[in-house]
Design goal:
single chain; mainly beta; five-stranded mixed sheet; four-stranded antiparallel sheet; 9% helix; globular
C-alpha cells in the first residue's frame, strides 16, 4: 500500500517534520534485507516458505524497546484480560522455529490510546511519560514469546491490531509487521467492544474493518491471528510470524 494513503487515512498529511522520521524508518522494510531476502511489495520469499508481510511501524513505535523487557505489559491499563502468544519461524531453515529472536510488541489501550505519545493532532490524550502496552521478549526453544495484556480497543481509520518488530539474536532487524484480528458477529472484537462493563465504551459504531483498513485492505492472509476465550475468562491470541532469520 502507498504510505501517503496510510497517513491520509490517519489524518497525518500536512504534519511535516513529525511524520518524516516515521516514513524514513519504515522505508527500510521495503528494501533487500541484510539476510539476502529480496522483498516485492509487502512480502518476501525465501526457501520453501514465505516471509510474513511487512507493515509500517508508525505512527506510534516504541521509543526505547530495550528498556521494556517484560512479559506483563498491562501497567495501569484496564480491560478484558488478553494473552498474546507469538511464534517466530525462520524461512531460511524451511520455517523451523527460531529460538533467541528478539520480539517487540505494542498496541493501543481499550480507548484507542498509545503510551509514549500524545498532546498532538495524532493523539490528543497525553501519555508521553508512560509505557503501557509495550514489551520485549526473546523467543524460547520453541520459538515462542508470550505477553500478558488487555484486549486492545480501536481508533478511527484502523481495525484492531498489534504491532510487532522482530530482530535476530544480535539485534539486527528482520521484520516489522502487524497482527490482524478475526471479525464477525461472534468474534472477540465484537464481544469485547460491546463490553461496557469492562470499560469498552465505543462499541462498533464507526469501526474500520480489515477490508477497509489502510494497512490490511490488501489482504491479511498471513497476518490474521487465531483468538479463543471469553469475556469472563479472558482471550488468548495465537499467531505465527515467518522471518528470514
Amino acid at each position: 500500500m502507498e504510505r501517503k494513503d496510510f497517513l491520509k487515512g490517519l489524518g497525518l498529511i500536512g504534519l511535516g517534520s513529525l511524520v518524516i522520521p516515521i516514513i524514513k524508518a519504515c522505508n527500510s522494510d521495503d528494501a533487500t534485507s541484510s539476510t539476502g531476502t529480496t522483498t516485492t511489495g509487502s512480502t518476501a520469499t525465501s526457501g520453501s516458505c514465505t516471509v510474513t508481510s511487512s507493515e509500517t511501524a508508525g505512527p506510534f513505535p516504541t521509543k526505547t524497546p530495550a528498556s521494556l523487557v517484560t512479559t506483563n505489559i498491562v501497567s495501569d491499563r484496564t480491560g478484558v484480560a488478553f494473552t498474546i502468544n507469538v511464534a517466530i519461524k525462520n524461512t531460511n531453515a524451511s520455517c523451523a522455529v527460531l529460538a533467541g529472536a528478539i520480539v517487540d510488541i505494542w498496541h493501543c489501550d481499550k480507548d484507542g490510546y498509545y503510551s509514549e505519545y500524545g498532546g498532538t493532532g495524532m493523539q490528543s490524550a497525553d501519555f508521553t511519560a508512560v509505557h503501557f502496552l509495550r514489551g520485549r521478549q526473546t523467543t524460547n526453544a520453541d520459538g515462542i514469546v508470550s505477553f500478558k495484556s488487555i484486549f486492545p480497543g480501536w481508533y478511527s481509520g484502523r481495525a484492531t491490531h498489534i504491532h510487532v518488530h522482530v530482530y535476530n539474536a544480535s539485534g539486527t532487524s528482520l521484520l516489522v509487521t502487524q497482527i490482524a484480528f478475526p471479525e464477525g458477529s461472534s468474534s472477540a472484537v465484537v464481544l469485547v467492544n460491546s463490553s461496557t462493563a469492562n470499560g469498552y465504551s465505543k462499541g462498533m459504531t464507526g469501526y474500520t474493518y480489515n477490508a477497509s483498513d489502510n494497512v490490511f485492505s490488501d489482504g491479511v492472509a498471513n497476518e490474521l491471528s487465531t483468538i479463543t476465550g471469553s469475556i469472563a475468562e479472558g482471550f488468548v491470541l495465537e499467531h505465527t510470524i515467518n522471518v528470514a532469520g
